[in-house]
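Listing S7. Sequence submitted for prediction.
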Amino acid sequence: MAVINVCNAIQELERSILSYHPGSDLSAYLLLVTKLEQALKFLASNCGLAIQWLEGILQFLEDNVVSNDFYSFKVNMCLSILQKLQGTEEQARLGRGILCAAFFKLEIEFKQLLAENCSPAAFPFFIGKQACIAPSPLPAAVMQKLQAIIGRLNGSNRIEKCVSAFVQVRSMNARRSLEALDLNYLEKSVTEFDDVQEIEGFINQWCNHMGSAVKHVYEVEYMLCNEVFEEIGSDIGMYCFAKIATQSGILSFLQFGARVTECKKDPVKLLKLLDMFECLENLRADFNRLFRGKNCAEIQKQTRDLIRKVVCGACEIFWEFPFQVEHEREVLLLQMEVFQG
């Protein structure tokens, strides 16, 4: 009788879940899903006990050579029914099962909440030298809903699609934020034959834009990743942040800087390399905090390579500078002799 009551309760919960939209009342929907999971577990557990009991009865009938096949038939029929019911929870988690459908609704709601509450970063205005930084990009109520969905799906090993949706939506938002800076120059081809003076303006922009991107785009994404996934207690937040940073273009900044170091050596290049070093040094603490861990390994590698190239490039020009001055002095003296002669 208890098994029948549980089956009736499960059917009622299934009807409610199929007709309910999580966006109308997420807490109520999550409660329905939890009740359904509990009911399915309870059913599987009780079916297991009943199956053991019936198997004992069937063994007793066989041991005592009961000739009435009617009893054996009834017991086997009940066993078959209970075994099917015991597999109800597993079937509910499969592709077309009710739990799978319920989780799918939660995944859709998660992505929709993110998309509806995304807006490009408003780069701060300045009062004197103090920047006015915008607060968290998501309202507290939305953050709570996202965390609730993540917690529920993680408990059922269904977190992958939410992680993928989060990276997709937030990467797109970060790219939209950076588009406001007009970063087309980052794709500019630079070779060892190019003169730094020709791209001096781009290098100045790079220094300013690098700081803006780190402090007002990636800082926000870092905080958001950690806040949304903090309840899970894993490095999923850092995994998402590394993906967002990479897909939105942080490597383009580093690669442009590396190409600048390959330009023709001259005094102007020395000054620009020193500007770049100052920019990177000012952002060092931010880089170490934001782009940490194994998930940001490629960003760390390219950052180290850029710093090494900037320092080595500046040193080479600095040590060659006296020889260039002497060469220029000799050329000037030669020109004066020709002029006087």
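Caption to Listing S7: primary sequence and predicted structure tokens for the chain studied. Strands lie at 126-127, 130-131. The chain has 13 helices and two strands.
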